[in-house]
Amino acid sequence: MTTNDVIDGLIGVAGDLPEIAQNTEDWALANLWWAACLALLLVLVLSTVQRLMSRSTLRDRRAFEVLPTTGFDPALEDVLRFAKQIATAQRSTSRWALPARGTAMRVRLMSVGGPLTLQIEGPARATTVLRHQGYAQCELRAVNGEESTPSRPEIRLGVSPRNDAGPAAATA
Length: 172
Known about the structure:
This protein has helices spanning 3-30, 32-59, 76-92, 127-131, 167-171, and strands at residues 61-68, 106-110, 117-123, 138-142. With 172 residues, the protein is an alpha+beta fold. Strands 2-3-1-4 form a four-stranded antiparallel beta sheet.
């Protein structure tokens, strides 16, 4: 086979392209409902697989609490470095192996009956990056599973606090 034969073959195929395109268009219009059903099925399967993969990732997350000392006053550079470390922790988890939904980092500022704390939560694959704290005057502590989701306070508007003794104790 020579170069001229290859070029002649490509020119012959190029000459047949309008006919091939017309046949493909006719087939696609005749079988449009099959193509639509196939596309819908593909979208459903991919979304189900993504949801199943992210479910296990979301279930296996680690949280760390950053407890500041009394003299804690970070400079702007320290805050930016800490934010960059959190962004690095999110990128350290492979987005190809896991859905983006499972790689999100969560930062919470909380104060539950004590000083203000910062809680950082992320996927278990980013644990080594999460453990590397960014602030010098802070203590890093792992959070247990029950403590990672704080209970919501009960807020009651327009209702006076309940008296355990009841109305009889109020008149006595």
